[in-house]
Amino acid sequence: ANDASFTGPITIVGDVDFSSLPDGELGTPSNPITKKIVVDEDVTITGLAVEKSGTSYGNAPLTINGGKHVTLVGVTVVSPGAVSNSNRAVEMEDGSEATIINSTITSTGRAINAGADVTLNISGSVVTSDYYAINIYNGDNAEDNVHVTLEDNTISTGWCAINVWGSGNSVTATNCDLYG
Asked: Is residue 121 within 8 Å of 93, Cβ to Cβ?
């Protein structure tokens, strides 16, 4: 049962083993966490489900702070609400890294929004959005030195599957579907 109670943003600090918590303690797709989660340490997150409208910068359901590496396995992040380009599900700050495996990231705006000097590896996952499924551009700033790898039947779909602005960037897509 989901007995956890959250009154504000959740900050994950240190090495946390989510698999040892009772089923549903950190949300399920049918009963997700509804608070913002900020990851401020290198961590692997398995089986997390979160749903919260991320209607402005800094308010995404899942934010990965700069300089941190996060691995998401079997995670569902949904940012519902009115269709808006400012709505986002996962926010990757400058210098962060993420490995997303067998997960679902969905937003009515930007599913994954990333800054400069970001490394993003997605495998066997679904990333969907009404606007940009993967967005490497933040406001008026082109983002540089961003490296995105999509593989193993990953699906990226939206008005634009991948939006990348800046220099020194690379996108590698192998055995995946891009719709936009």
From this structure: no
Provide the pLDDT confidence category of residue 49 given band limits of 50, 70 and 90: confident
Q: Residue 55 has what pLDDT? A: 62
d(CA 76, CA 53): 14
* Of the candidates 73, 77, 116, the residue with the CA atom closest to the CA atom of residue 93: 116
Cα dihedral 22, 10, 82, 137 sign = negative
**Per-residue exposure over 39-59, b if at least 16 CB sit within 10 Å of its own CB, e if not:** beeebbbbbbbbbbbbbeeeb
- In a 13 Å sphere around the CA of 97, the CA atoms on its Cβ side amount to 11
Segment 156-172, tens digit of pLDDT: 999 999 998 888 899 99
* Residue 22: pLDDT band with limits 50, 70, 90: very low
Nearest partner of 156 among 136, 135, 178, 124, judged by Cα: 178
Could you tell me the two tokens for 139? 């406001």
Check if the beta carbon of residue 74 is closer than 8 Å to that of residue 46.
Answer: yes
Residue 10 pLDDT more than 60? Answer: no
CA distance 62 to 98: 12
